[in-house]
User: Fold this.
Amino acid sequence: MKRALLLFISGLLLAACAPTGAQGGSIRVEDAWSRPAAAGANGAVYFTLRSGGAADRLVAASSDVARAVELHQTTIEGGVARMAKVPSIDVPAGGSVELKPGSYHVMLIGLNRELRNGDKFSLSLSFQSGATSTVQVEVRGNAPASTHGGH
Assistant:
């Protein structure tokens, strides 16, 4: 009985010492951030997804700060930046994918409130594997020039 209790406590201590960043199965979410944006406008969230094992796919995101949340990708076609909704974002086995301005991002459509420097809000992510992660997004940087969240 004492041994089982000792093993249980050891497991709790190991879990408490785990690396920082949100865990979703074998996917870590690192450095989630957003730029400031006005209430009613659109915004974008950026972060890195890092696989500690098997490949997975980000398939959905949600947050109470916006009317709708979608996965998007910005591409350059004929010298013009175009943004489009994507069904998912692949995370390679043992690799990473960076969601950043001018590339993949999570689009916040119709912000329910202003996002100001220093604010934090929750973003929930769902993966094809069934794993989920809820991360804290930090608002930082300069206000975007447009209502599209500066992507």
User: Anything to note?
Assistant: DSSP finds one helix and eleven strands in the chain. Confidence is low (pLDDT under 50) at residues 2-24, 143-151.
